[in-house]
Amino acid sequence: MSILVQKYGGSSVADEQKIQQVAERVVAAKRAGRELVVVVSAMGKTTDQLLAQARRIHPDPPRRELDMLTSVGERISMALLSMAIQRLGFDAISFTGSQSGIITNDRHSDARIIEVRPFRLQDELSRGRIVIVAGFQGMSYRREITTLGRGGSDTTAVALAAALGAECEIYGDVDGVYTADPKVVADARHIPSLEYPEMQELAEHGAKVLNAAAVEFAKERDIAIFVKRTDGQGGQTVVRRYAPVAPGQVVGLAHERSVRVIAAQGESRDELLAFLDERGIPGKQLSVHRFRERPDGLYAAVVVSREFLEDADAFRAALRERLGERALLDADLGAVSLIGAGINQSFRTLRRALGVLAEAGVEPSGLHTSSFRITALVPGPRVDEAVQRLHRAFIEAEGVPENAC
After folding, report:
1. 133-148 burial, b if ≥16 CB within 10 A, otherwise e?
2. Total domains, the chain
3. What does R_g of the chain's alpha carbons equal in angstroms?
4. Cα–Cα distance between 183 and 360 in angstroms, integer?
5. Residue 324, by phi and psi: left (phi above 0), alpha (psi -120 to 50) or beta?
6. Which three-class secondary structure state does DSSP give residue 26?
7. In angstroms, rounded to a whole number, what is the distance separating the alpha carbons of residues 182 and 174?
């Protein structure tokens, strides 16, 4: 029998009734002749609740202890789903990330998987059992519990699929990837297929359907990811290796309502980067430029997602204590990104995007580009409007290129 890895997100296992529904879907796949490994997230908002509780105890909780705390949520889900499957008459067993053989580096709260040793899972599959795995977590080479960052259960599923030679299905509350967040853009369109780099850019810059590290892992191992709705309604999005069909065309938009921009002047660049590393704060984008005609001509700016820097006021005070007036923090920005292969072959797309924003009276405070992306930093309260206007100009007016499924 072929092995199938399924992953169910927090909304899919939010309560007992939904866990029962997931159990029925898993059992149906087992009856159809598949060997099942099922990865689960924490129920509903459990992780957010645990993080809030931690911050009521300590304003800047140690990351090791956060991992010990937040890894509990997925263990609850895995045990309850295993019980629900067994009640339906099928043999199931649940495992934590460490029991599943997921080995990570030693970075707490944002660990990377470096190896998967799935021997115990293979043994249980050979006995005919359905295996349930707690997503989002692993064990470092120092035998410490680690977590994989937001959306890390996706990475767990893809890593296990690669290690087991399995297919990978990701289930959530939407039937795949859309050209923008449907909660922001009413006319967002379903995308039936995407190539890895486009999906990775969407995920890294705000699209919540898939985790960016999971897409990167899938790209490295050439694992196709099927994104579906838990209730089986609608279609699906397949993420795999494609040749770009319409290079230069925008295929989708992603956004973040809140990002932080930290800048340092002069030779304080290295001190700023060390300061961020000491606090385990990863940057999304680093820009450095030296103006040779200026004595203080070196400027460095780092963009950080809000999830890694929640308390801007406390960070600003610590930054000022360390670097004084040489460093600045802007905490009132959002980010809007246009994604598509080859969209920066010329400046045409960038110029059009800036024109659309200018018509709305939105002046970006920063611009970042790659071969697949244009990102504009805009005032946080204007993010939704910017997404809607850009979607009308680049998607609704031009349509979405169709990749062969």
Report:
1. bbbbbbbbeeebbbbb
2. 1
3. 22
4. 21
5. left
6. helix
7. 10
Nearest to 77 by CA among 46, 102, 101: 46
Intra-chain end-to-end CA distance of the chain, in Å: 25
Query: Is position 404 within any domain?
Result: no
Residues shown for the chain: 405
Structure tokens at 21: 């529904």
β-partners of residue 92 are 130
Give the residue from 194, 227, 226 showing the smallest Cα distance to 402.
194
- Contact between residue 193 and residue 151 where contact means Cβ atoms under 8 Å apart: no
CB atoms under 10 Å from CB of 186, counted, come to 9
- Cβ neighbours of residue 161 under 8 Å, at least 6 residues apart? 5, 167, 168, 223
47-86: b or e for each residue (b if 16 or more CB lie within 10 Å)? beebbeebeeeeeebebeebbebbbebbbebbebbbebbe
CA distances from 181 to 15, 226, 336 (A): 25, 19, 12
Distance CA 32, CA 218 (A): 26
* Residue 390 included in any domain: no
State pLDDT tens for residues 250-300.
999 999 999 999 988 766 788 888 888 888 788 888 887 765 555 565 678
The CA distance from 383 to 357, in Å, is 11
Q: What is the mean pLDDT of residues 344-373?
A: 93
| CA distances for 297 relative to 45, 292, 330, angstroms | 46, 6, 20
- Residue 56 pLDDT > 70, yes or no? yes
- 9-33 pLDDT, tens digit per residue, is 999 999 999 999 999 999 999 999 9
Contacting residues for 238 by C-beta, under 8 A, at least 6 apart: 192, 193, 194, 224, 225, 226, 227, 405
386 domain-assigned: no
Is the CB of residue 395 less than 8 Å from the CB of residue 180?
yes
**pLDDT for residue 245 is more than 90:** no
**Tell me, what CATH number does 83's domain have?**
3.40.1160.10
271, part of any domain: no
Domain span at 93: 3-173
